[in-house]
Amino acid sequence: MKKIALTTFVLIAVLAVGFIWLKPSEPKAISIQDSEELFKSYCLSCHNAQKSSFIDRKWFFGNSRDEIFNSIKNGRQSYGMPSFNAGLKDEQIYGLADYITELSAKSADDDNYVVSEAGVHHSQVMDFTVETVVDGLDVPWGLEFLPNGDLLINERDGRMIRYTVNGEKEEISGLPDIVARGQGGLLDIELHPNYSSNGWLYFSYSSPNEDNPKLASTAIMRARLKGNQLVDQERIFRAMPQTETRHHYGCKLEFDKDGYLYFSVGDRGNRDRHPQYLDNDNGKIHRINDDGTVPDDNPFVNDTKAKSTIYSYGHRNPQGVCMHPQTGRIWTDEHGPKGGDELNLIEKGKNYGWPVISFGINYNGTTFTNDTAKVGMEQPVTYWIPSIAPCGMTFVKGDKYPKWKNNILTGSLSFHYLHRVELKGDKVVNQERLLEGIGRVRNVEMSPDGYIYVAIEKPGKILKLIPQ
Predict the structure, then answer these.
(1) CB-based contacts of 407, cutoff 8 Å, min separation 6
(2) Where is the Cytochrome c domain (predicted)?
(3) Which of 192, 247, 248, 324 is catalytic?
(4) Which of 12, 82, 175, 234 is paired with 32 by a 20 to 30 Å CA distance?
């Protein structure tokens, strides 16, 4: 009996040791310092430059170490999240997962990045102060002033708000069905040049497919305001094909001096098929008449294989479209991938190269093209490396900011500042960062009385720049 008991004990001990030896160890990760450097290099170009999008985060696919690892390694393509499998090793990805897990446990109060709006702010050529006009917003995507001074604000979550001259917020009813997910939602807003006589206002939004709610695309509707209700709604454009992806919708609106409406549609995340082919609407700048019909002189109007509204193509995700107040020419700013954001002067029928040529690389650090130029493809007026994530765009008009007149202002989502671009003719001669640390700048708009208004997101507010 003693021999049997001893044998049993030895067997159990051997099995226990074997179990301990065979038990998988925690996957190896790089140091927290190296992980932070990777985070800065690979994550902040999309998730903003101050880590705040990972704090108090709502996780779609789980927030455990392994779930975060899986999302980074394999990507979530329909959500705009690329795979990093080709660019990073597993131990690097686990290091990122550990770093992100620590960030997500922080309080939003720990990421105090917003600079004070008080006092005088200095640019290279003038001083100004900042006044908060509207607060309590979320993601104010579109801004437009009504003739009486009321401000229409498009919130990306699908609400249109009238901020009255008396300081009241009133919600506008009568909007269409809107897919408010990912980068989609209620987007830009623009008044007809003859709004005072015809009452038409135009807005862009992500429009769902009637039969399959997973599908959506960029659409434009015009309508009139009756009190706080939209009436006479007409959808005058909807991009095709619709897709399940949640990013790269575009879509900024701008009327030119001749009354044509220009607008941008992003590539919807399908860079290999959409931007370089004229049989679809994505990855393009479009031009239409105010009623949605197609101008007779559009560049591809007689091409039976092309979409007749296309004005230029080879674009990734332009989120700024505006007209030079003197020349009347259309300018855009455009999100590149990791690096390679662009400022473009739009020419009729031209190919702007995406993704055949680019100054950027994949988010995972790999390359998708070795070419930055090619015959038959346009060069940007300027480009930004690293990506500033330009969003919203306007030319400075009027006489209230004489040292900035005809300069371009665009927002930086990534680095939380207002970007000023000084032109001489069609060339960039100077650039400057304004209001560094102010927050994610979503839009910039000029008021009818000549002041600059800046839309900040999360927390959403509208700022007014007052020259000194």
Answers:
(1) 395, 396, 420, 421, 422, 423
(2) 30-104
(3) 248
(4) 82
Helix/strand/coil for 144? strand
Q: Hey, CA dihedral for 270, 274, 280, 285, is it positive or negative? A: positive
What is the rounded distance in angstroms from the CA atom of residue 401 to the CA atom of residue 451?
A: 8
Is the Cβ–Cβ distance between 420 and 96 less than 8 Å? no
- Active site includes 274? no
Angle at 196 between CA 192 and CA 197, to 5 degrees: 90
Token pair 């989502």 is found at: 413
H-helix or E-strand spanning residue 100: helix 90-104
Whether the Cβ atoms of residue 224 and residue 231 lie closer than 8 Å to each other: yes
Q: How far apart are CA 190 and CA 297, in angstroms?
A: 23
Tokens of 202: 């135009």
The token pair that represents 328 in the structure block: 């009347």
pLDDT for 177 equals: 95
Rounded Cα distance, 13 and 243, in Å: 59
| pLDDT at residue 23, as a whole number | 45
> What beta strand segments (E) does 281-403 contain?
284-288, 310-313, 318-323, 330-334, 341-345, 382-384, 390-395
**Rounded to 5°, angle at Cα 461 from 40 and 315:** 55
| CA distance between the termini of the chain | 99
Q: Beta strand pairing status for 417-424 and 390-395? A: unpaired
pLDDT on residue 105: 60
Please enumerate in sequence order all residues whose Cβ is within 8 A of that of 16, keeping only pairs 6 or more positions apart, or say none. Answer: none
Tell me, what's the pLDDT at 45?
A: 56
Q: Are 261 and 254 in contact (CB under 8 A)?
A: yes
Give me the helix-helix angle, 65-74 and 90-104, nearest 10°: 130
Spans of the chain, pLDDT less than 50: 1-4, 6, 9-23, 49, 107-114
Question: pTM of the prediction?
Answer: 0.83
Please, what are the domains in the chain? 32-108 (1.10.760.10), 120-467 (2.120.10.30)
- Give me 172's structure tokens: 């506008």
